Amino acid sequence: MLWRLGSVVVVALCLASCAAATDDGDDSPAHGYGTGSHEASSTSHPDAGDEAPTQERLSLSSTEVSRAQLELGPTGLEAELVRDGLDSVYRAEALWGRSQTSPGEPVRLQEGSVVATSFTSTLDLGGVDGGDIWAVSWQLVGPDGNGNWPGPPLALTVGNGQWRIGGGDGYPGGSRESYAEIGIPFRDGQTIDWVIEVTVEAEGGTVDVWADGEHVVRTWRPPGGTLYPEQPYVLMKTGLYTGGGEAGRSSRMTIADAVATVQTPPAR
């Protein structure tokens, strides 16, 4: 059920409780996502004598909307974008924030953070096959040292008719754009269960992706890292961000069963 009061979106998101991780040798995500339970648990492996990292559950707690409609509900969102011209950018995204400590404030993912999220998405790009349009469903994006917002180091996208994850075009000093192919052709109206695990590191980091329970991207290391060297932090967004394509064509995305956790390394 979704709520809207005038132009104000009322947000209520109930997340599943954390559960302990196990290592039984299978190929499922370490935190328990992708098993149908959409539960989160610790993925950290601190060295002996180190203080354990802090783990927090997150909420879809603030929004970014331009020329679009966005509704947030208990476990996801519905976004509808209607185009009024060519080469325009349209977004209807939710930023992830802290569930209890700072409602509405996006969480800043810094060097050494481990973020894990799962959600079910249905994307309708208005009848195109994805070959003539780009569309982002999830991303990590943040400012550089000068307060500018370069292209994201990491995003789940549709491009050239395929689902893929990658980024890096905003790398300081020159693009390091690269993508890991997921192996799923885009099909209008298709519903996919996603699980994404990322270690946030400048000049490094790892990415794992599951689609409908299959481990489609394994410990991928983007050439530009999952955080740019000059970035103090990145934010995590889930929702639709797209542009270009045919004038007047509408796009729609539904996100359900959205869950996320972040592990923050102890202060040194």
Say what the CATH topology is. Answer: Jelly Rolls
How many domain units?
A: 1
Low-confidence stretches: 1-24, 33-48
Which structural class is indicated by helix and strand composition?
Answer: mainly beta
The major sheet is characterized as: 14 strands, antiparallel
Regarding quaternary structure, what we see is single chain
Put simply, the count of helices is 0
Do you know the CATH architecture?
Sandwich
Q: Kindly state the mean pLDDT as a whole number?
A: 77
Q: How many strand elements? A: 16
- Helix and strand element order: EEEEEEEEEEEEEEEE
Distance between the ends:
44 Å
Give the C-alpha Rg.
18 Å
Q: How much helicity do the residues have?
A: under 10%
- The CATH class: Mainly Beta
Shape: globular
Strand fraction: over 45%
Note the main attributes of this structure:
268 residues; Jelly Rolls
Give a verbal description of the structure.
This protein has 268 residues and is an all-beta fold. It has a single domain, classed as Jelly Rolls (Sandwich), CATH 2.60.120.200. 0% of the residues lie in helices and 46% in strands. The strands form two sheets. Strands 3, 4, 5, 6, 7, 8, 9, 10, 11, 12, 13, 14, 15 and 16 form a 14-stranded antiparallel beta sheet that branches. Strands 1-2 form a two-stranded antiparallel sheet. β1 and β2 form a beta hairpin. It starts with a strand and ends with a strand. The model is unreliable at 1-24 and 33-48 (pLDDT under 50).
